[in-house]
Design brief:
It contains twelve helices and 24 strands. With about 500 residues, it is α+β, with helices and mostly antiparallel strands. It folds into four domains: about 90 residues, no CATH class; about 90 residues, no CATH class; about 45 residues, no CATH class; about 180 residues, no CATH class. The protein has a four-stranded antiparallel beta sheet with strand order 18-19-21-22. A three-stranded antiparallel beta sheet has the order 2-1-3, with helices on one face. The chain has a three-stranded antiparallel beta sheet with strand order 12-13-14. A hairpin with a 6-residue loop joins strand 21 and strand 22. Helix 11 runs antiparallel to helix 12.
Length: about 500
């Protein structure tokens, strides 16, 4: 006990001696019947609470996204009723629930119109319910009537017992108890209903069991693109007229019906490129300060390559389910000790596919890859070794694209980053059932030992005893071997036990 008193004394003393935590000023909001009301800047949350009868919140400058006007549950009546919800059976209208105390003035909760459901067992006259709340409300009303009828029956029984008691004290006591219990039951039934209805009518109607709808909010500021502002309902006029392309300016001329912090007269920048496979980024080489750049052109057009920059230049695939895959990756100089320097590179297949304007595509075409793999008698993970990575060749007078197979690009640590990226991702779904595509590598010494092991009977048929070791010895040069193969072939360096996309044995193709 003495120890507890000592600890309590130290805590009390520390409370008075040590400086108190200073709270940042915040914008105060109170709940009212007319909606959330801003009370101005308060010194701290405590002073805000003392200002409000119903405290809503006090938010610092870093918490502006928590203001009532950003509450995703709050809708205007027009927004709610003009946006029905589609479902498999048709369209459901939306119902506005009126002004909410925690929303700004003119906003409240929005609910979907319930879908009617036919009842297998009717409850009175109710044969279908539009919501669980309506069903519970019907059951509750029916049980209330049934319980009242039961209480009346118990009162009648108690009265009969009292009449037939004929002065018997025990029977009179039992009859009075039945009467008392029946009356108490009726009072509780209707009293609880009345109290619940006074506190909140929703307690007895159960008409809001479903959650309210969530409103989509688009956050805009002066740095937002003109396209984002137009999509949010703002009117934007291009300057000069007709130039609605990357780098050119526009001016907000009308705010539309949606609430936004962007004021009329705010300037924005267009970000649309004529070629959808290019991205609008900042550039010091153009008059507007922006340029449409393809992944592999980043260095040529004055951009500084980085992981973030290359991610921004990756084409936004509008149809992810098709056979086209796009890769724009940052290469700090993996190829030949950085012969081309750091740049953004494109991983493609095949390398000789061109667009209509005779420019090389920047796509990994899985339809062509699978077809070529099948033609090579190995529709398996092994074919990923033939995918190529394109570098902008800036070593000569004429710029061009230098393509290299992904298993030929090795970093300083002996890793094959682009082969690992494609093999692990398996974008063309070449892995056999219950396995995955994996990269396996081996140095020359490992391959020599493996070749010797292959020559030992009875591991392989006698035909392989003579042919396989010679083939492996020819592969074991001075360079690392790297293969993409299926899981069960990894112990054999992707040279044996290869399986195709169906799980059948297939050719491992040493030449790949």
């Amino acid at each position: 006990m003495k120890r507890v008193l000592i600890i309590f004394s130290f805590l009390t003393l520390g409370f008075y001696l040590f400086p108190q935590v200073a709270f940042a000023t915040c914008t105060c909001f109170c709940e009212t019947e007319d909606g959330a009301q801003e009370q101005g800047v308060a010194d701290d949350i405590t002073s805000c609470q003392s200002t409000c009868d119903d405290f809503l919140g006090c938010y610092t400058d870093d918490q502006k996204n928590m203001y009532p006007n950003y509450n995703t549950q709050c809708w205007t009546q027009y927004e709610c009723e003009s946006q029905p919800v589609e479902y498999s059976g048709g369209v459901l209208a939306s119902e506005w629930d009126g002004q909410a105390s925690f929303c700004t003035s003119g906003e409240g909760l929005c609910y979907n119109e319930p879908e009617p459901i036919k009842l297998n067992v009717a409850i009175g006259s109710l044969t279908q319910a539009t919501s669980l709340g309506e069903y519970i409300n019907a059951v509750y009303s029916w049980l209330l009537i049934a319980a009242s009828f039961l209480a009346i029956v118990v009162m009648m029984i108690g009265g009969i017992e009292y009449i037939l008691a004929r002065g018997n004290p025990t029977k009179i006591t039992t009859a009075k108890a039945h009467l008392r219990q029946a009356i108490t039951g009726i009072v509780l039934l209707f009293g609880s209903y009345a109290i619940a209805n006074i506190v909140d009518p929703h307690f007895v109607t159960f008409n809001r069991f479903q959650p309210p709808r969530i409103r989509t909010i688009v956050y805009l500021d002066e740095s937002s693109t003109c396209e984002a502002m137009i999509n949010a309902g703002l009117a934007v006029t291009p300057n000069p007229p007709g130039y609605q392309i990357c780098g050119y300016k526009g001016t907000v001329t009308a705010q539309g019906s949606k609430q936004t912090s962007v004021e009329i007269g705010t300037e924005c920048t267009y970000s649309m490129c004529a070629n959808l496979r290019e991205t609008c980024v900042g550039s010091s080489l153009t008059e507007t300060g922006y340029d449409c750049i393809r992944c592999i052109e980043a260095v040529e057009k004055g951009a500084t390559p980085s992981t973030t920059m290359c991610e921004q230049l990756e084409y936004n695939d509008l149809n992810p389910s098709d056979s086209f895959n796009y890769f724009c990756e940052y290469d700090p100089g993996f190829l030949d000790a950085g012969v081309f320097g750091a740049q953004c590179v494109e991983i493609v297949y095949p390398e000789d596919e061109y667009n209509a304007d005779d420019s090389p595509t920047n796509v990994l075409n899985c339809d062509l890859l699978r077809a070529d793999a099948e033609a090579g008698d190995s529709k398996s993970c092994r074919f990923y070794d033939n995918v190529v990575v394109g570098y902008e060749d800036n070593t000569g007078e004429v710029l061009g694209i230098d393509y290299n197979e992904v298993d030929d690009v090795e970093d300083s640590d002996g890793e094959f980053p682009w082969l690992e990226l494609i093999c692990d991702a398996d974008p063309c779904h070449l892995a056999p059932p219950n396995e995955r595509c994996e990269v396996v590598s081996a140095d020359p010494d490992e391959l020599k030992y493996f070749a010797a092991a292959c020559a030992l009977p009875p591991l392989f048929p006698m035909t392989a005893v003579l042919i396989v070791p010679l083939g492996l010895m020819s592969l074991a040069g001075d360079e690392l071997l790297a293969n993409c193969t299926n899981t069960s072939s990894v112990p054999y360096y992707g040279l044996f036990a290869c399986k195709d996309v169906n799980g059948d044995d297939t050719d491992c193709n040493f030449s790949w």
